[in-house]
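INFO batch 0412 | record 1 of 1 | parsing
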Amino acid sequence: MKLAEPLASANTANAAATAPEPAQTAAAVPKPSGKPLLIVKGVERSFQTGGRQLHVLKGIDMELKPNQLVMLRGRSGSGKTTLLNLIGGLDQPDKGEIYFKGHPFHRLNDVKRTQIRRKEIGFIFQSFALMPLLSAWENVELSLRMAGVPRSQWKSRVPHCLELVGLGKRMHHRPFELSGGEQQRVAIAKAIAHRPSLLLADEPTAELDSQMGAQVMAVFRQIIESEQVTICMTTHDPTILEVADHVYQMVDGKFVVS
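INFO prediction complete | emitting tokens
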């Protein structure tokens, strides 16, 4: 299987310079193993729109390996969000195969895919998706409740996640009392609370200025090391590409080499 060539390599030193201070230094983790976390083979997806068929994905091959930050870069309409939904088991391809930790997402029904998502996958959205009347602590706690994490683990896990994203002193503030970058970091804390192995982020820096965006990307690098998680995100922002381990350029539903 031939993959699209990566467009950029990680430059964690630049990102770390803008990162909020974590509560404690994360222990070093082993380099990613050669075994992929997720494999996509020949995936195609079409939609019926206005009486005609719109071919959104046209044969996608890719792999996600453990403890990496992978970006899907492309203009609006290039197919990157559709691919992200397929990777996360929110949708199924018309053709092709998707294996997540050995699970054949392309063959599983909605119930089976939902069970896997709740345990293994976290989602981050550009709109933050926070409950406005709940504090940062309560938002993260709610995510643990919904994921079925035992209540006995909440008291230690909630502050750990918020401190990890640099919000140790803001954990009892509500979303309207936080900046956009801080709200996105609460969303990240929510997404990692149940200890997923894969985080999927749809344009997580789109609503942020460049400084806030750089802080969020630095947090991503921190949680990859401390939580041993793989992150796959969509973006059209060229200023953050150097932080990634791999960048795949999408044009009209295909990966291209730039």
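INFO post-check: The longest strand covers residues 52-64.
INFO record closed
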